[in-house]
């Protein structure tokens, strides 16, 4: 990959930053949508308790984080939107957002039923309660029930995941409170990945979660974000809080972290500069063959040290470590074929961003989508 970055001008980066802000404005969920999510949450809980009286329900993933791309509301062609905003809303309308929900039960239930049986039992009560489009994915790696809430029309993926999903959602949330550039970059990368069809783990490409971890890793390397799992709150040793054999400790009090000066950001780049650098990093700089992006340590680890060297051809497959479940490689769905597709998209975006800057054309993001 050869791009001449010296041609990129300050005006170009400013334009990219402006477009990023515009894109984010257009795709963040409205408050009306959050109310609908709340209504759906309550009706799912109410129905789930018919099958499992002691069930509690947890909301995780992008809709819990405020990282979801909006479902278009009724007003999406209303006044005050730019053409770009309308374009974005129409496209995201076609990719309705699912709410990720997880049920936890008293421990007896887990002895009495397999995960597939739990999902079946839940699916039946959901159907009987009049939920729409009920599908039971009993054979998925993590079995889930998919439903569409009858009142709000919101789609939900409901599973019996381990508690770790709640902790990793909290970790992502803490990072999003440290620096606003993180959230903007996540929106752009997620939106780009969905438009380019490389955000479909069921079809061998990467999950949004994987892309978000890649963004955090990049921002850590770049000095925009700290490594929250390495910062002890007392300035001494990092504690061990064990849940499901993982250490789920991280410094969650980010307000104090910043106000006390324990973390000072030294990077003053604009979002536009970071977007260009992100795509360059993952198309030309990241060492896919030997390296693993590790948010947990804020560094690139060696595959050799992690024992992840079995198949050299599946480079990306073993390139992103889960921050808590350290044996879990989050790029797992990627295989030999989809690896070329995903890396090809990174290279394409990087080239376009750099050449658009060179010739000074407008609407850079529309070009990479
Ligand atoms: N998750 C996980 N391990 C994975 C994939 C997902 O623990 N390999 C959990 C994470 O808690 C993540 C949540 O599932 O936040 C949702 O993942 P995903 O759907 O990929 O991300 P979202 O941010 O919800 O993106 P989208 O808007 O595309 O649904
Ligand atoms: Mg999700």
Automatic annotation (TrEMBL):
Residues 306-328 are annotated as: Disordered. It comes from the Eukaryota. It is found in: Cytoplasm. GO terms for biological process: negative regulation of macromolecule metabolic process; RNA 3'-end processing. Coiled coil: none annotated. Residues 95-177 form the Poly(A) RNA polymerase mitochondrial-like central palm domain. GO terms for molecular function: metal ion binding; poly(A) RNA polymerase activity. Keywords: Cytoplasm, Magnesium, Metal-binding, Transferase. The keyword Transmembrane does not apply. Transmembrane segments: none annotated. Residues 271-328 form the PAP-associated domain. Its main location: cytoplasm. GO terms for cellular component: cytoplasm. Residues 306-321 have a biased composition (Basic and acidic residues). Belongs to the DNA polymerase type-B-like family. This is polynucleotide adenylyltransferase. It comes from Chytriomyces confervae. The lineage of its organism: Eukaryota, Fungi, Fungi incertae sedis, Chytridiomycota, Chytridiomycota incertae sedis. The chain holds residues 619 to 987 of 1025 of the full protein.
């Amino acid at each position: 990959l050869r791009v001449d970055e010296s041609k990129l001008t300050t005006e170009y980066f400013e334009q990219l930053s402006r477009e990023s802000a515009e894109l984010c404005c257009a795709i963040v969920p409205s408050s009306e949508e959050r109310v609908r999510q709340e209504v759906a949450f309550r009706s799912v809980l109410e129905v789930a308790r018919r099958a499992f009286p002691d069930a509690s329900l947890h909301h995780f993933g992008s809709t819990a984080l405020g990282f979801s791309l909006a479902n278009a509301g009724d007003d999406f062609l209303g006044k005050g939107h730019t053409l770009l905003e309308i374009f974005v809303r129409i496209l995201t309308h076609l990719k309705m957002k699912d709410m990720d929900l997880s049920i936890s039960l008293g421990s007896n239930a887990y002895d009495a039923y397999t995960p597939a049986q739990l999902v079946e039992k839940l699916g039946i009560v959901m159907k009987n309660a009049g939920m729409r489009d009920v599908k039971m994915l009993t054979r998925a790696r993590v079995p889930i029930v998919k439903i569409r809430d009858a009142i709000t029309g919101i789609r939900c993926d409901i599973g019996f995941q381990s508690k770790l999903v709640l902790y990793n959602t909290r970790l992502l949330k803490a990072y999003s409170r440290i620096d606003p550039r993180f959230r903007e970059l996540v929106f752009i990368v997620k939106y780009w990945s969905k438009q380019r069809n490389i955000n479909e783990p069921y079809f061998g490409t990467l999950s949004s979660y994987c892309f978000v971890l890649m963004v955090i890793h990049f921002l850590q390397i770049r000095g925009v974000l700290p490594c929250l799992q390495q910062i002890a709150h007392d300035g001494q040793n990092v504690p061990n809080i064990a849940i499901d054999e993982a250490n789920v400790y991280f410094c969650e009090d980010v307000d104090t972290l910043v106000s006390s000066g324990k973390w000072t950001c030294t990077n003053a780049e604009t979002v536009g500069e970071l977007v260009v650098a992100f795509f360059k990093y993952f198309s030309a700089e990241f060492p896919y063959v030997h390296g693993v992006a590790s948010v947990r340590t804020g560094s690139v680890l060696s595959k050799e040290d992690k024992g992840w060297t079995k198949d050299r051809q599946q480079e990306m497959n073993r390139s992103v470590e889960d921050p808590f479940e350290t044996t879990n490689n989050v790029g797992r769905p990627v295989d030999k074929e989809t690896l070329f597709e995903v890396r090809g998209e990174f290279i394409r975006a990087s080239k376009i961003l750099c050449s658009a800057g060179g010739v000074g054309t407008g609407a850079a993001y529309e070009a990479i989508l």
